[in-house]
Design goal:
The protein is α+β, with helices and mostly antiparallel strands. The protein has a domain of 137 residues: tt1808, chain A (Alpha-Beta Complex), CATH 3.90.1570.10. Helix content is 22%, strand content 29%. The chain has 4 helices and 10 strands. The strands form 3 sheets. Strands 3-6-7-8-9-10 form a 6-stranded mixed sheet, with helices on both faces. The radius of gyration is 18 Å and the shape is globular.
């Protein structure tokens, strides 16, 4: 007796919507990845990066403008019906207006924050995926080491263009038109964590 072949089902957006509360999902190359939502420290750093970039690059206040800077956007890209970088940016010349639905344009820059639960996924799955679809720049922030590694895509591979930790006036591609105080990002992490009473 011949058994019918089992054809694996490719996950869809419905599978992400069915995940339990507090669980975030992404589909990359036909695989559903589920993880807890980012924790407090993770969000603090992502907020610092977004704050430093938003006014000069998204609003054009104190900088050149010309960008969309968005935290955890829902993006539908080639081979990924749902992916969400911690922060992503698009040059407005490539995406002139904000889309009403999911973004379907490859970002010009992504930023991922490494934490205990996301480190392996970000480094082994997401960064290679971003390179394969042609994202020109990627920043990786390591919470434990308190540093930022900046990468530029070169011939389909990531070329590390700098490591930043204590710099008060870092100029980091593709946002090198404005100096960023990277050292300031870690200050809140070094303070004593609040205790539950």
């Amino acid at each position: 007796m011949t058994l019918p072949a089992i054809v694996p089902r490719i996950p869809t957006r419905d599978d992400i919507d069915a995940l339990p509360h507090g669980v975030k999902g992404e589909i990359i190359d036909g695989v559903l990845y589920a993880m807890t939502r980012p924790r407090f420290r993770h969000q603090v750093i992502a907020g610092c990066v977004t704050a430093d970039l938003f006014n000069p690059f998204a609003r054009g206040r104190g900088g050149p403008g010309g960008w969309w800077i968005v935290s955890e956007p829902g993006i539908e890209l080639p081979r990924s019906p749902e992916i969400s970088p911690d922060i992503a940016g698009w040059r407005r010349e490539r995406m002139p207006s904000s889309p009403e639905g999911p973004v379907t344009i490859v970002p010009d820059w992504v930023c991922e924050v490494l934490s205990t639960t996301t480190r392996r996924h970000n480094l082994r799955i997401k960064l290679p995926y971003y390179a394969s679809i042609g994202v020109p720049y990627a920043w990786v922030i390591d919470l434990d080491a308190q540093l930022l590694q900046a990468h530029r895509l070169s011939d389909g591979h990531w070329l590390q263009i700098g490591t930043f930790a204590d710099e008060k006036d870092a100029r980091i591609e593709p946002f090198d038109a404005v100096a960023i105080d990277v050292s300031e990002w870690w200050q809140d992490l070094e303070r004593e964590e609040p205790r539950v009473k």
